[in-house]
């Protein structure tokens, strides 16, 4: 048996290893003659180009190269053969057997003989078609997003409402109108950051603190509608804005940011202020003659020689004059509460006694209407630091409405509960109820429900507005529940202090 030299065995083993490595490599590999003939092809290259190895060996690299990329490749081949470089790398396109394009990342090295003669090129081709197509799709998507962004910006800039979409600490999208408001609030420049204090004020003229700014409230996840703020340093040129916010969440519910809309309502606010001023002025003018009318009616009724039928007419006149006086009083109260002229005169009040007295005052009307009126208050004193007369207005209005809107045979129940957290006053009735669609407007000035209007129940739609204003001034809250035909329950929650 002939024993091969160790060097020969190692050489043969190395060649086998190299061939196995090339054959099973995921990178297409071929040996290319200096004239361009393809001398070999591994499995990866055959799969990449859709040819068998025999078919590839019958081709030149010029034939499998995309015509538009051939010149660049030939120039590099020439430079390599001329000894100007020993290798090169090139992104180029190849032609698949079925005609479609294959994108490749080509690495080429020239192998020379001992005398420097070029023997062949070793070419390795990585298929980057998917990466190129992904990059093209990404670029197309980016172009489409940019196009949509331009359309969106054009739409936003065409509306007269300020719009801002922002993430934590800064705006993502704003429109022209919002920028106008920003420049008014920050004449020195706002550098694109949300939540910076500026010339922003409450309707009463108080400068807003950082936590009160709409952008900071929205950033915290709060949603609100028609929050009124004023913007601008000069009171004479300030603009009133109604701000609404909607939160943006991920599908998992995580908070991403918010969309804020700023609507300039300066003209509306001024018109409402003028209307309130007019109503207050007219109410003041009506109060004096009404007092005179009621006084003279009382004198006429006290005369001994007034016929019975005239007394009846005087009673009608007095009832309507009293009703008009109550309406004037309500208008004045609303005007005072609206412009902030009312200051609560707080003192320690037994709210339980106040509720009982209010119920006693309305009881004759309840009895006349055929209603059952029940009162439930704690046996011990319920002391709280409140404005007694104003709180009495709240209870009077709620009880008066309950009696007015409940049909004969029904019931009205008033209940007062006290806890360390505060007071809860509940007025429940079995009356006409409330429409859920109207609950949001029920406490608005001059609003009357459709059912109340259709039944011709008297009222100006001011009582509940007064209730909410007084409760708000005390730092409390008022709410209502109910359904049409099933009665309603008004709940007032007040802090003790």
From TrEMBL:
<feature type="domain" description="PAS">
    <location>
        <begin position="14"/>
        <end position="84"/>
    </location>
</feature>
<dbReference type="InterPro" id="IPR003594">
    <property type="entry name" value="HATPase_dom"/>
</dbReference>
<dbReference type="GO" id="GO:0045121">
    <property type="term" value="C:membrane raft"/>
</dbReference>
<dbReference type="InterPro" id="IPR000700">
    <property type="entry name" value="PAS-assoc_C"/>
</dbReference>
<dbReference type="Pfam" id="PF08448">
    <property type="entry name" value="PAS_4"/>
</dbReference>
<keyword id="KW-0067">ATP-binding</keyword>
<keyword id="KW-0472">Membrane</keyword>
<dbReference type="GO" id="GO:0005524">
    <property type="term" value="F:ATP binding"/>
</dbReference>
<dbReference type="InterPro" id="IPR005467">
    <property type="entry name" value="His_kinase_dom"/>
</dbReference>
<feature type="domain" description="Histidine kinase">
    <location>
        <begin position="281"/>
        <end position="497"/>
    </location>
</feature>
<keyword id="KW-1003">Cell membrane</keyword>
<keyword id="KW-0902">Two-component regulatory system</keyword>
<protein>
    <recommendedName>
        <fullName>histidine kinase</fullName>
        <ecNumber>2.7.13.3</ecNumber>
    </recommendedName>
</protein>
<dbReference type="InterPro" id="IPR050736">
    <property type="entry name" value="Sensor_HK_Regulatory"/>
</dbReference>
<dbReference type="GO" id="GO:0005886">
    <property type="term" value="C:plasma membrane"/>
</dbReference>
<dbReference type="GO" id="GO:0000155">
    <property type="term" value="F:phosphorelay sensor kinase activity"/>
</dbReference>
<dbReference type="Pfam" id="PF00512">
    <property type="entry name" value="HisKA"/>
</dbReference>
<keyword id="KW-0597">Phosphoprotein</keyword>
<dbReference type="InterPro" id="IPR013656">
    <property type="entry name" value="PAS_4"/>
</dbReference>
<dbReference type="InterPro" id="IPR003661">
    <property type="entry name" value="HisK_dim/P_dom"/>
</dbReference>
<feature type="domain" description="PAC">
    <location>
        <begin position="88"/>
        <end position="140"/>
    </location>
</feature>
<dbReference type="InterPro" id="IPR001610">
    <property type="entry name" value="PAC"/>
</dbReference>
<keyword id="KW-0418">Kinase</keyword>
<keyword id="KW-0808">Transferase</keyword>
<dbReference type="InterPro" id="IPR036097">
    <property type="entry name" value="HisK_dim/P_sf"/>
</dbReference>
<dbReference type="InterPro" id="IPR004358">
    <property type="entry name" value="Sig_transdc_His_kin-like_C"/>
</dbReference>
<dbReference type="Pfam" id="PF02518">
    <property type="entry name" value="HATPase_c"/>
</dbReference>
<keyword id="KW-0547">Nucleotide-binding</keyword>
<dbReference type="InterPro" id="IPR035965">
    <property type="entry name" value="PAS-like_dom_sf"/>
</dbReference>
<dbReference type="InterPro" id="IPR036890">
    <property type="entry name" value="HATPase_C_sf"/>
</dbReference>
<dbReference type="InterPro" id="IPR000014">
    <property type="entry name" value="PAS"/>
</dbReference>
């Amino acid at each position: 048996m002939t024993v091969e030299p160790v060097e020969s065995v190692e050489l043969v083993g190395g060649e086998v290893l190299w061939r196995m490595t090339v054959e099973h490599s995921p990178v297409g590999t071929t040996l290319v003659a200096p004239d361009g003939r393809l001398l070999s092809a591994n499995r990866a290259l055959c799969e990449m180009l859709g040819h068998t190895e025999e078919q590839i060996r019958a081709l030149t690299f010029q034939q499998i190269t995309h015509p538009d990329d051939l010149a660049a490749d030939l120039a590099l081949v020439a430079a390599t053969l001329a000894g100007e470089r020993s290798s090169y790398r090139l992104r180029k396109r190849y032609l698949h057997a079925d005609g479609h394009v294959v994108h490749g990342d080509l690495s080429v090295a020239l192998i020379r003989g001992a005398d420097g003669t070029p023997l062949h090129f070793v070419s390795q081709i990585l298929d980057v078609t998917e990466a190129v197509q992904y990059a093209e799709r990404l670029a197309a998507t980016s172009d489409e997003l940019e196009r949509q962004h331009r359309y969106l910006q054009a739409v936003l800039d065409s509306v007269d409402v300020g719009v801002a979409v922002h993430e934590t600490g800064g705006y993502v999208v704003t429109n022209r109108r919002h920028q106008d408001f920003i420049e008014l609030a920050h004449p020195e420049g706002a550098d694109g950051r949300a939540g910076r204090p500026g010339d922003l004020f409450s309707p009463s003229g108080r400068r807003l603190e950082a936590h009160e700014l709409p952008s900071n409230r929205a950033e915290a996840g709060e949603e609100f509608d028609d929050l009124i703020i004023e913007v601008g340093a000069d009171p004479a040129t300030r603009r009133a804005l109604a701000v609404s916010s909607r939160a943006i969440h991920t599908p998992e519910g995580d908070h991403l940011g918010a969309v804020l809309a700023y609507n300039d309502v300066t003209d509306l606010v001024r018109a409402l202020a003028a209307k309130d001023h007019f109503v207050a002025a007219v109410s003041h003018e009506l109060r004096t003659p009404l007092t005179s009318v009621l006084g003279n009616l009382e004198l006429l009724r006290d005369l001994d020689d007034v016929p019975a039928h005239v007394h009846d007419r005087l009673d009608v006149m007095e009832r309507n004059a009293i009703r008009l006086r109550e309406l004037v009083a309500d208008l004045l109260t609303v005007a005072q509460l609206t412009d902030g002229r009312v200051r609560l005169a707080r003192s320690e009040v037994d709210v339980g006694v106040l509720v009982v007295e209010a119920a006693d005052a309305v009881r004759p009307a309840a009895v006349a209407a055929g209603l059952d009126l029940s009162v439930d208050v704690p046996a011990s004193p319920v002391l709280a630091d409140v404005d007694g007369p104003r709180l009495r207005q709240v209870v009077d209005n709620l009880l008066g409405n309950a009696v007015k809107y409940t049909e004969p045979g029904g019931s009205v129940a008033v209940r007062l509960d006290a806890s360390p957290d505060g007071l809860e006053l509940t007025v429940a009735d079995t009356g006409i109820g409330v429409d859920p669609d109207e609950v949001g407007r029920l406490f608005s000035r001059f609003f009357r429900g459709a059912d109340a209007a259709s039944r011709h129940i008297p009222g100006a739609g001011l009582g509940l507005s007064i209730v909410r204003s007084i409760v708000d001034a005390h730092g409390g809250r008022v709410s209502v529940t109910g359904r049409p035909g099933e009665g309603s329950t008004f709940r007032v929650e007040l802090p003790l202090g």
